[in-house]
Design goal:
alpha+beta, single chain, seven-stranded antiparallel β-sheet, 7 helices, SCP domain-containing protein
Amino acid sequence: MRIGLSPRGASRLIARILVGALAAAAPVAAQAAPQDRYYERSFVLAANQRCGLFQPQVSAALNAAAWQARGAALRAGANERELSETARRARARAASTPCDSGDLKLVGGRVQHAFAGWSRTARMTFPGDRSDWVANRGAYARPTWRLMQQSSVGASPVRLGVVGGMDRADVMTAVVSWHGRPRPTGARIVLRDAAVAPQPWLARDLPPEVQRKAVWASSVVAAETGLLPEGREAGQAWRFPAAAADAIGRLDPREAVAVEFVFRDGSVARSVFEAGDFAAGRAFLAMGPV
């Protein structure tokens, strides 16, 4: 971490890297080490919270960048304890920087300028180790995928993510188009239970059953055509409470999340997803529709 730099040097470094990240509208992946990038974004977010540097859309963009940086740092080998300490140091630096300092004005001006182009970005892909989250801020009258990752159960494609529209609240949803199977009677999202197992499970599959929790779908409807995988004419849309999205957002990006479909005979079909930068994708959507 570059916490040994002078305040002026630190803030100029922050401005330079943030401008590059925002202007390119690209995933976190540049010159600075991942934990440095997390420190820099955490500093600017803390300064914004204290001093009101940015409008809400810019704040949402910075929040997305911070979540991306967190994911990159975890993939690079950092752990939650180290990142918590990094964020604490960044907040302490922000707390000691006067709101009327020229350095913060420099940061604010450069980020605002860079954001002018990024605010018009409608789509963004958040790459993972094995699967990507694809975010879409486009304004559509019909329900559409706002954030989505694809997987399957055998020959049956499954999509998981956030569905929304101009006049509809965003809802965590799993859409499945069954191939040669009876329809399930229930669906649940299964993931690590942080209250039982606080450490990430990085074995590329679900943790042992005693360390899991399940969030059951609250309803099921016929899937809108625009939500179906290409080439599919029908499917089910299973809707989940907001707690499911919140739980996925708190996972280490390398952890697995599963959607399990339960059938009348007691059998279960499982589709596995990667937590990835789900939280960063949600923060991107918080910028509002384009």
